Amino acid sequence: MMRAIGARLAALAAAVALAGPAAAQQLDPENSDGDHGGFSLTPELDLEGVDELGDVQDVEQPQAAAAEGAVLRGLDRLSGDLSDLELSTGETRRFKRIAVTLGECRFPAGNPSGDAYAYLVIRADGEERPIFEGWMIASSPALNALDHPRYDVWVLRCRTS
After folding, report:
1. In degrees rounded to 5, what are phi and psi of residue 107?
2. How many of the other CB atoms lie within 10 Å of CB of 117?
3. How far is CA 51 from each of CA 38, 48, 60, rounded to the nearest angstrom?
4. Residue pLDDT, tens place only, 69-111
5. Would you say 82 and 74 are in contact if contact means Cβ atoms under 8 Å apart?
6. What is the pTM for the complete model shown?
7. CA 47 to chain centre
8. Residue pLDDT, tens place only, 13-22
9. CA separation (Å) from 42 to 14, 22, 35?
10. Which of 120, 70, 76, 78 is nearest to 100 (CA)?
11. How many CB atoms within 10 Å of residue 88?
């Protein structure tokens, strides 16, 4: 009984999957030479009432200011040790068996306590290639996170004078 129901569901799913593309195509009377079987494979766009670029609005991008340094937090997942690392731009600090280099820290202009984002290069002992290189964002540490089995590093804030 269950096999029969499973077979019927599989057949129904296959029929729906095969019917979808055919239903989306439209008949093209000008293309009756048999190349595509009388179907147009290009979508038709309704551009009536669309001004060239008149409907596009400019979005004001927030300006960023560079800070003199950053405050990062490191976690050793094995021991549970937490350490705050204060780095200046271009400085490298060690946390256990990794070295963290701060390239730059930026924040919204006029709002130093706003969302910080820092460019970091993190190297593990004995590794030539960095285990992380890129921007980390304080408000979304998981967006671009360090992928290491033992250590975790994230940005807390930029350091300003």
Report:
1. -150, 165
2. 21
3. 33, 9, 22
4. 999 999 999 999 999 999 999 999 999 999 999 999 999 988 8
5. yes
6. 0.62
7. 32
8. 555 555 555 4
9. 24, 13, 14
10. 120
11. 13
CA 34 – CA 124 distance, rounded (Å)? 62
Measured CA to CA, the distance from residue 112 to residue 109 in angstroms comes to: 7
Take residue 57 and report the two structure tokens written for it. 């609005």
pLDDT value for 59: 75
Single-letter residue type at 84:
D
**7 pLDDT exceeds 70?**
no
- Within 8 A by CB and 6+ apart from 80, the residues are none
Convert the chain into a string of H (helix), E (strand) and C (coil).
CHHHHHHHHHHHHHHHHHHHHHHHCEECCCCCCCCCCCEECCCCCCCCCCCCCCCCCCCCCCCEEECCEEEEEEEECCCCCEEEEEEECCCEEEECCEEEEEEEEEEECCCCCCCCEEEEEEEECCCCCCCEEEEEECCCCCCCCCCCCCEEEEEEEEECC
Among residues of the chain, what percentage have pLDDT more than 70?
Answer: 65
As given in the structure block, the two tokens for residue 7 are: 């077979």
Amino acid at 110: G
